[in-house]
Amino acid sequence: xxxxxxxxxxxxxxxxxxxxxxxxxxxxxxxxxxxxxxxxxxxxxxxxxxxxxxxxxxxxxxxxxxxxxxxxxxxxxxxxxxxxxxxxxxxxxxxxxxxxxxxxxxxxxxxxxxxxxxxxxxxxxxxxxxxxxxxxxxxxxxxxxxxxxxxxxxxxxxxxxxxxxxxxxxxxxxxxxxxxxxxxxxxxxxxxxxxxxxxxxxxxxxxxxxxxxxxxxxxxxxxxxxxxxxxxxxxxxxxxxxxxxxxxxxxxxxxxxxxxxxxxxxxxxxxxxxxxxxxxxxxxxxxxxxxxxxxxxxxxxxxxxxxxxxxxxxxxxxxxxxxxxxxxxxxxxxxxxxxxxxxxxxxxxxxxxxxxxxxxxxxxxxxxxxxxxxxxxxxxxxxxxxxxxxxxxxxxxxxxxxxxxxxxxxxxxxxxxxxxxxxxxxxxxxxxxxxxxxxxxxxxxxxxxxxxxxxxxxxxxxxxxxxxxxxxxxxxxxxxxxxxxxxxxxxxxxxxxxxxxxxxxxxxxxxxxxxxxxxxxxxxxxxxxxxxxxxxxxxxxxxxxxxxxxxxxxxxxxxxxxxxxxxxxxxxxxxxxxxxxxxxxx
Length: 586
Description:
The chain has 586 residues and is mainly alpha-helical. It has helices at residues 7-36, 44-56, 68-84, 89-94, 96-121, 127-137, 142-152, 156-185, 190-222, 225-232, 235-245, 250-268, 271-298, 300-308, 314-367, 372-397, 402-410, 416-423, 432-461, 468-491, 505-516, 532-558, 563-578.
């Protein structure tokens, strides 16, 4: 007879195999839904929640208990970093008023209001514990709204505001949650909360800035896509862990590190680095972000069962969750209405400043003909005035009207932080299972309810997205500016080959023709037996790409062009440079 194996290891092995199969099934589900859902007009996160709920009711499918702290400390940082690294820093700065209002002020108001409501509805629940759950349900997750908005062509500024809100509001909510949980264990004054909040923000900003700049510097020195990508995978944790260790906001540190990396990548990373990073982080974002939505639906049976086996009534709990949802929707609508009015006022002020700024710029231009010191000062001030002009042009052409405000008010779906933070509530909190179900109710109702009706609202309001013709004109203008820089390079009488010899006129003419069609694909990689003339043409093409990239950097700094045009040209140049022989790329 064969010896019997110990039951423990076999059980553990079986459980690990089961979890491995579930992970494989989850990835396949995410990929399948991501492929099919857009074709039927459904946002991927919403479809995954529905799939998760359906799978959770299959009898033979095992329950999965995921440590919520694992989501907050391992899953959330990469999700936030992958989103932040793609946000254009100039766009973020131009919309900081709207982003700050929604992600800080509205979150605080929502947390306090929900806390008061829950304290009234559940009498033996302390106010601190009620506010803790208010912090849990207060931050919307913009993933579903952005997925819907991009598919239906929402205005880019509205998408940017939603992205910025989704990045920052998690930091506000988690800092509030930490303070509220501390208050449940003892006496915490309002000044303590304000002090903790200020320290969390300041610490997160500093650590995120240092982490972003340091890793950009290291990656620029490595200059190898595989190595720089490997470093990029630890950037979120390099920002998050130190910040959390000193009780600052790790979430804010991750966001700042991502913004810094995205802004600095055009100047310090190679084209291959940027292409590799975009592909890898889009893959990570797809799996992690959508995986959390799948998990949200999948865990609903477990959450309902915990309440059912406790002292609380499931139907009453769901009813409280619906009341909280209604309050959150109402608060967002009431907040967005005056915010939209304020943004429209800023738009009118921007129009009114146009002539005054032009006059100031004319005077500064005259002063640049005076002494060198005065000219330098005038040039510096003129650059600030031009940036103000560019910002005003952005506010004027991409204003947020009442229709956009209505879409913004309705885009309040909850997601990853609500799921994880609710389950991270301490076991000592009274009615913990009930509070978790309330949070899940808010998340699922907002995702399915608002997510399903947001496309209808956008279509009914006839919200106009980008002007395709205006985008084409802007893109042509930017490419014209870049190719003009290339013409200046070719017309430079001091232009020399790497050997010091002059370029042949025939090679220069060929380069001019290539410069006129810089957006076309490059010629095949250099052949060892190609003629000297062909080699010169390739060298000139490399010089043109370098000048084009330098001109693009100048355009980014000026703030004159939208992020859409800048990103389009950046991707185009990256693709061209990536096709060069590595020995030719300096």
